Amino acid sequence: MATVIKTDLPNPVYSGKVRDTYSFGDDHFLMIATDRISAFDVVLPNGVPDKGAVLAQMSLFWFDLTKNLIPNHLEQFAMDRTDLDLDKEIARRAMVVRKADRIDVECVVRGYITGSAWKEYLSEGTVGGLDMPSNLKEGDRFPEPLFTPTTKAEEGHDEPITIKQMEDMVGVDVTRELRDYTLLLYEFGRKYAEDKGIIIADTKMEFGYIDNNIALIDEFLTPDSSRFWDAEFYEPGKSLPNFDKQFVRDWLNGQGWNHEPPAPSLPSDIVEKTRERFLLAFQRLTGLKIR
Ligand SMILES: Nc1ncnc2c1ncn2[C@@H]1O[C@H](COP(=O)(O)OP(=O)(O)O)[C@@H](O)[C@H]1O
Ligand SMILES: [Mg+2]
Questions:
Q1: Fewer Cβ atoms within 10 A, N terminus or C terminus of the chain?
Q2: Same domain, 117 and 39
Q3: Which structural domain range is residue 201 located in?
C-alpha cells in the first residue's frame, strides 16, 4: 500500500501541513493532498495511506455537487488527464485548479458548539462575540449556523475577526457575499451529510477571484477543513471525537505527549484503523469507490 508523505515535482510554490502545491502553466496549480496527518496542529512522522486520495476526491465530489451554487477553482481531477504523466499514486491525490486572486479571510461557519467556540462560550458566554443563550451544552446545535471569520495568518494561528473588521478588510459588499455563500454552502453540505449519517459540526472555506468572479477555492468540506462527527454517537453534553482522527487522538493522549513537535510515531494498527475511518467517511458520504 502506497503512502505519499512527500512529493517532488517541478515548480513547487507551497507546501502546507498536508498539501503540496505546484505551479502548472501560467494560470493553474497542481494541488496534491499527501497522506500527511496532523494532530494538535503538529504533523505526525508517519502518514495514513489513502488519506490524500480521500481528501482530494471528497473535495472533487463537493465541487461537482455545488457547481451550480458557486463557481469553483477545479479544472480537472488529475486521474482524468492524459497529458500530465503523473505517477498514479500522485494523480489519485491531485487536482488541477485555476489560480485565483485569494481573498485573505478564512470563512468559518459553525452549526454546532464545539472547539474554540465552546471555549469562548465557557469563559465569555459568547461565540464570535455574539451573546448566546445561557444553557448551551457542548455539542449543541445552534438555532442558526454562525459565520465566524478569521484572518489567514502567514505564521502561527488564525485570529478571529468581527464582521466589522472583515468589512474593513475586504469591504461591506464582499463581506456580505462571502457570508451568504458560506452559510448557503454549509447548509447544503450539512443537510447532505446528515442524510448519510455524518454531522458536519463546522467547516472553513476560502474564496478568491477567478475572471473577476468570486469562486470557491482551496479544499472544500473535507475532514481536514471541517469537523465530521458520527451521527450515530451524537450526544450533546459530551465532547465528540472527529470521525477520522479519533484513534489518533486517543492514542496520542495515552502517550502523555505534550503536543510540542516532534510527535511520536503512530503504531501500524492505529494507522490502519485511521485509514479505514477516512475510507468509511468517503464511502458513506459520496457512495463512491475511491479511485
Ligand atoms: N485556486 C487557488 N488560488 C490561489 N490560492 C489558493 C487556491 N486554492 C488554495 N489556495 C491557497 O493555497 C494554500 C494551500 O495551503 P494548504 O496546503 O492548505 O496549507 P496550510 O493551510 O497548511 O498552510 C492556502 O493558502 C490557500 O489559501
Ligand atoms: Mg489549508
A1: N
A2: no
A3: 102-233
What distance in angstroms lies between residue 263's CA and the mean position of ligand 2's atoms? 20
Same domain, 74 and 187: no
pLDDT at 168: 98
Asked, for residue 130, whether it belongs to a domain, the answer is yes
Q: How far is CA 99 from CA 26, 131, 150, in A?
A: 9, 39, 22
CATH number of the CATH domain containing 162? 3.30.470.20
Number of separate domains in the chain? 2
Q: Which helix (H) or strand (E) holds 62?
A: helix 51-66
Cα Rg for the chain, rounded, in angstroms? 19
**Residues 69 and 12 grouped into a single domain:** yes
pTM passes above 0.85:
yes
CA angle 50, 282, 4 (to 5 degrees): 15
Q: Is the pLDDT of residue 154 over 80?
A: no
| pLDDT of the residue at 64 | 98
**C-alpha span between 125 and 106 (Å, rounded):** 23
- Model confidence pLDDT, tens digit, residues 155-205: 778 899 999 999 999 999 999 999 999 999 999 999 999 999 999 999 999
Q: Which three cell numbers stand for residue 231?
A: 451521527
Instruction: Kindly report, residue by residue over 12-54, the tens digit of the pLDDT.
Output: 999 999 999 999 999 999 999 999 999 998 999 999 999 999 9
Pocket test for ligand 1, best of 17, 70, 102 (most atoms within 8 A of CB): 102
Ligand 1 atom 4 nearest Cα: 100
